[in-house]
Amino acid sequence: MMRNPRWARYWPTHVVLRIATLGNLGSLKAPGTWGSAAGVLLYVVLFYQLNGIFGMLFILGACYFAIGICGEAEKRMKKVDPGEIVLDEVVAMPICYLGLKPFMAEGHTPLILVSGFVVFRIFDILKPFGIKRLQRYYGGFGVVIDDVVAAIATCLVLNLGRRLWLGF
Hints:
By secondary structure, the protein is an all-alpha fold. 67% of the residues lie in helices and 0% in strands. It has one domain (6-166).
């Protein structure tokens, strides 16, 4: 069994919940969709600027942070993977666009961003390919891992689609 990181235990409840729900974003209708949109914004503003190893370190660090915060928020809300927690979608979205930066640089950014958003939401909602089983993991890891795997599946679909449809 995987344990939640201990560092988040010492943070005040209002801080943990505000971060996990991105303020009031988690209380809106369809919070996962809003969290995913915030993740696209995170990609555009921050991740797109990073290259190679820095991008991967950012993703790993963001996922570790989300596991700690989401796991602690889950405990304090006394719910299992509540919909109000949207930090997991936010940190997963940049994964969707791995390997697509050169294609975006050629002027296809809006197409890729929208396609990634739509495909990710489909995978996140339907949870195919055994993604649903990943939610059984304990705590923050269970909250985050299904979104990360949905993002990896989205990345594969986008990269494969780009190569098959456009031939490069």
